[in-house]
Recover the amino acids of this structure.
C-alpha cells in the first residue's frame, strides 16, 4: 500500500536527512518508527505527505508516486491520510468543534454529515464536554485529542502520528496511545513516530528503527505489550 | 455554493476573533485610504486654484475705429470654431466709449477732451479666453494669418495685447504645468507608499497564520478553500477602513471648509465632499476592497506551496 523506494533527502548543507530508505507498509498495519532526534522520522513523514520533495527515490501510495501528483490530486490524496502532529497544530481561532469540522468542510462534506460526524469523532476521543472551547482553553492532552478527532473524522485509510506524545505527560501519553490502538483495531493503517521507549513497548507490533537517515532495524513483534 | 458560504463564515469569524491583527490592519488601511482621500482633496484644490488663475488670463484684440462690425463678428465666429478657444466676448466701440466715460467720470479734463472730438476715437474690443494658457500663442498666430483680417488690404486690428503680456503668460503657463507635474508625482509617490505599507501590514498579518495555512493544506483543503477566508478578512478590513475613512472626512472637511473658502477663492471643501460623496464612496471603498483583496491574495500565495 505504501512503499518508500530508495528515498534520499539531502538538504542544502549536504546533510542527509534520509539515506536511500526503502520501506513497505501494508494496509491495516500499525508501524512504529523509532529513533533519536534527527534520525529522519519526521522527514520520512513529510515525504509521505508530499510536504517536501525527495532528492532521489519515490514514495508510492497504492502504486501511485505521490510526488508526481498534480495539486488538485494531491489535495484528494491528503484527504485519505489523517495527520497528527507533536505540537497539535490546531487552528487557533476555531473551537474544538470547528477544528474537526474544518477537515470535513475541506473535503466537501455536507452540513448534515458534519453535524452528525463531528460530535461522534469528539466522543471517540472523550472530548464531548469541551467542543466549544478554543485551543488556548484546552490542556495539551485535550488539544491532542482534538487533533486525533480531526485526523479520523474523514475516516482516512492511513493515520500518521508524528511524535504525538512528545508534548504530553505520562497519563495523556497513555490515553493517546490507547486511542491510536483503538483506531487501528477499527481497520485503519497507523504510522507512528516516537522516541519514547514506553510508547514503543506499549504498542509493540512492527517497530522500524532509524538512525542517521537510514533504517537500521525492522522488527515484527508477535505479541502485543499491555 | 456551500464552499462559498463556509469561506465567508470562516473569514468573518477569523476577522472577528483575531481582533488584534484585524484592528491593526484596519488602522493602517484607514490611514492609507485617508491619504488617498486627502490626495483627491489636494488635487481638487490645486486644480481649482490653477483654473482660477488661468481664468484671469485672457487676450484682448483692439480693433481700429474703421473696422466693420461685420468683419469683427466674422472673426469672432472663426475664433469660436478653434478647439483652443474657451470663449470670446465682443465689446462694441460704443460700449467701449461708454465704459471709458464711466471709468473717467471724475476726470473732467479727459471727458472734456473726449467731447471736443467729433467722433468716437475708441475701437471695438474682442476678448478671448483660451482653454489653457499655453494655447494663447497659437490663437495669436491665427489672428495674424486670418483671411478676414486681410480684407480690403487694410488691417482692422490695432493691437493684440498678447505680445505685451507674453512673458507673464509664458511664466504662468510654466508654473501651472510644473504644479500639475509635481502634484502628479507627489500623488503617485504617496499612493505607492500607502499601498506598500498596507501590503506589508496584511503580509505580516498573514505571516502569523502561515502554520495555519500549512495545516489547512495538510488536512486536505484545496488552495481556494485555504486562501478564501484570508481574502474575506482582507476585504472586511478594506470595507471597515473605507467606512471609517469616509466618516472621518466629514468632520475634517467641515473644519477645513472656512479656510479653503477664504484661501482658494470660494472652494468649500465640505460642500465639495458632500456633493461628490458617491464618487468618494466608490473610490475609497473600491480602493479598500481592492487593496485588502489583492494584498491577501499575494501574501497567502507564498504559503500555499505546501
Amino acid at each position: 500500500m505504501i512503499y518508500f523506494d530508495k528515498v534520499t533527502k539531502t538538504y542544502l548543507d549536504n546533510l542527509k536527512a534520509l539515506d536511500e530508505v526503502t520501506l513497505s507498509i501494508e494496509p491495516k498495519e500499525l508501524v512504529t518508527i523509532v529513533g533519536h532526534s534527527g534520525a529522519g522520522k519526521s522527514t520520512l513523514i513529510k515525504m509521505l505527505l508530499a510536504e517536501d520533495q525527495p532528492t532521489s527515490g519515490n514514495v508510492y501510495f497504492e502504486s501511485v508516486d505521490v510526488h508526481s501528483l498534480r495539486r488538485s490530486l494531491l489535495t484528494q490524496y491528503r484527504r485519505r491520510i489523517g495527520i497528527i502532529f507533536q505540537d497539535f497544530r490546531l487552528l487557533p481561532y476555531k473551537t474544538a468543534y470547528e477544528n474537526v469540522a474544518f477537515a470535513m468542510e475541506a473535503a466537501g462534506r455536507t452540513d448534515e454529515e458534519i453535524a452528525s460526524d463531528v460530535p461522534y469523532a469528539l466522543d471517540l476521543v472523550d472530548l464531548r464536554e469541551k467542543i466549544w472551547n478554543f485551543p488556548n482553553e484546552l490542556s495539551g492532552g485535550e488539544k491532542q485529542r482534538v487533533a486525533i478527532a480531526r485526523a479520523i473524522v474523514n475516516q482516512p485509510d492511513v493515520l500518521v502520528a508524528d511524535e504525538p506524545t512528545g508534548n504530553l505527560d505520562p497519563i495523556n501519553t497513555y490515553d493517546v496511545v490507547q486511542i491510536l490502538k483503538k483506531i487501528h483495531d477499527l481497520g485503519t493503517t497507523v504510522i507512528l513516530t516516537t522516541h519514547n521507549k514506553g510508547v514503543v513497548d506499549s504498542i509493540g507490533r512492527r517497530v522500524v528503527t532509524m538512525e542517521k537517515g537510514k533504517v537500521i532495524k525492522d522488527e515484527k513483534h508477535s505479541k502485543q505489550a499491555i | 455554493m456551500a464552499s462559498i458560504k463556509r469561506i465567508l463564515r470562516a473569514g468573518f469569524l477569523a476577522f472577528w476573533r483575531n481582533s488584534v491583527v484585524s484592528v491593526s490592519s484596519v488602522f493602517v488601511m484607514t490611514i492609507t485610504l485617508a491619504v488617498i482621500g486627502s490626495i483627491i482633496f489636494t488635487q481638487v484644490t490645486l486644480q481649482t486654484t490653477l483654473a482660477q488663475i488661468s481664468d484671469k488670463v485672457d487676450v484682448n484684440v483692439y480693433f481700429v475705429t474703421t473696422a466693420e462690425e461685420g468683419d469683427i463678428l466674422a472673426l469672432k465666429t472663426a475664433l469660436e470654431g478653434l478647439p483652443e478657444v474657451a470663449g470670446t466676448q465682443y465689446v462694441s466701440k460704443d460700449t467701449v466709449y461708454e465704459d471709458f466715460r464711466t471709468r473717467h467720470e471724475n476726470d473732467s479734463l479727459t471727458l472734456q477732451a473726449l467731447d471736443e472730438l467729433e467722433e468716437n476715437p475708441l475701437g471695438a474690443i474682442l476678448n478671448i479666453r483660451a482653454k489653457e494658457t499655453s494655447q494663447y500663442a497659437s490663437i495669436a498666430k491665427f489672428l495674424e494669418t486670418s483671411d478676414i483680417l486681410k480684407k480690403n488690404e487694410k488691417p482692422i486690428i490695432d493691437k493684440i495685447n498678447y505680445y505685451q503680456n507674453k512673458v507673464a503668460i509664458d511664466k504662468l503657463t510654466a508654473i501651472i504645468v510644473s504644479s500639475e507635474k509635481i502634484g502628479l508625482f507627489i500623488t503617485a509617490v504617496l499612493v505607492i507608499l500607502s499601498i506598500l505599507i498596507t501590503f506589508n501590514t496584511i503580509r505580516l498579518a498573514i505571516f502569523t497564520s502561515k502554520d495555519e495555512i500549512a495545516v489547512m493544506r495538510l488536512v486536505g483543503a484545496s488552495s481556494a478553500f485555504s486562501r478564501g477566508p484570508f481574502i474575506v478578512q482582507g476585504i472586511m478590513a478594506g470595507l471597515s477602513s473605507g467606512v471609517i475613512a469616509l466618516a472621518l472626512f466629514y468632520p475634517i472637511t467641515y473644519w477645513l471648509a472656512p479656510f479653503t473658502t477664504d484661501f482658494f477663492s470660494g472652494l468649500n471643501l465640505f460642500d465639495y465632499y458632500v456633493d461628490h460623496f458617491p464618487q468618494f464612496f466608490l473610490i475609497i471603498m473600491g480602493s479598500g476592497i481592492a487593496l485588502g483583496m489583492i494584498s491577501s491574495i499575494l501574501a497567502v500565495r507564498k504559503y500555499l506551496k505546501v
